[in-house]
């Protein structure tokens, strides 16, 4: 199965509108979650309310990895009235090192206004279902999450 489209959390829409989430500034991270996670609950607000992050083993760090660039980036969409939020076209790679990354199903992008924001306080921006069922990445293999050509999401 191909990954699903990225879906914004309800609170993220509000936070983008009121400036709490500043797209193109601050720090964005991508975390991985398993099939038992509540990731797809649109009413979640902060990373601390998310359950089922994969174990911090095999080179995975709790809270995830910074996007490249860490601030994300805005680019012009299909028309002058569109702008898309995206990150590096080479994607974000998670490498299983020493042991497997186990039970992966979702990727979640979070926001912190600065690098010092505690992991649990980070705002949830959006999520993507990477597969219809959870999977593992054995060592020394990699999982690369690429943004769609149209970006993570587009504002019109």
Written overview of the protein:
The chain is mainly β and 156 residues long. It has one domain (7-155). It has one helix spanning 10-18; strands at residues 7-8, 27-33, 65-66, 73-76, 83-86, 92-95, 101-104, 106-112, 123-129, 135-137, 142-145, 153-155. It is globular and about 45 Å long. The mean pLDDT is 89.
Fold topology:
Elements: E1 7-8, H1 10-18, E2 27-33, E3 65-66, E4 73-76, E5 83-86, E6 92-95, E7 101-104, E8 106-112, E9 123-129, E10 135-137, E11 142-145, E12 153-155
Characterize the overall form.
globular
Low-confidence stretches: none
Computed Rg? 15 Å
Strand percent estimate: 25-35%
Strand order of the largest sheet: 1-9-8-2-3
Q: What's the oligomerization state? A: single chain
Largest sheet: 5 strands, antiparallel
**Series of H and E elements:** EHEEEEEEEEEEE
- Tally of extended strands? 12
Number of helices: 1
Which percent bin holds the helix content?
under 10%
Mean of residue pLDDT? Answer: 89
The helix-and-strand class reads: mainly beta
Which characteristics define this entry?
156 residues, mainly beta, 5-stranded antiparallel sheet, 3-stranded antiparallel sheet, 1 helix, globular
Quick take:
By secondary structure, the chain is mainly β. The chain contains 1 helix and 12 strands; from the N terminus they run βαβββββββββββ.
């Amino acid at each position: 199965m191909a990954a699903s489209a990225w879906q914004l959390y309800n609170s993220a829409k509000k936070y983008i509108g009121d400036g709490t989430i500043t797209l193109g500034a601050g720090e964005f991270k991508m975390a991985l979650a398993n099939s038992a996670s509540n990731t797809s609950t649109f009413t979640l607000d902060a990373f601390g309310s998310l359950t089922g992050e994969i174990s911090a083993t095999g080179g995975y760090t709790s809270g995830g990895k910074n996007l490249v660039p860490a601030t994300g980036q805005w680019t012009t969409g299909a028309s002058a009235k569109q702008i898309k939020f995206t990150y590096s076209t080479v994607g974000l790679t998670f490498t299983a090192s020493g042991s497997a990354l186990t039970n992966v199903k979702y990727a979640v992008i979070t926001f912190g206004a600065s690098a010092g924001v505690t992991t649990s306080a980070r705002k949830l921006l959006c999520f993507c279902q990477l597969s219809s069922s959870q999977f593992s990445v054995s060592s020394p293999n990699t999982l690369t999450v690429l943004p769609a050509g149209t970006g993570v999401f587009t504002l019109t």
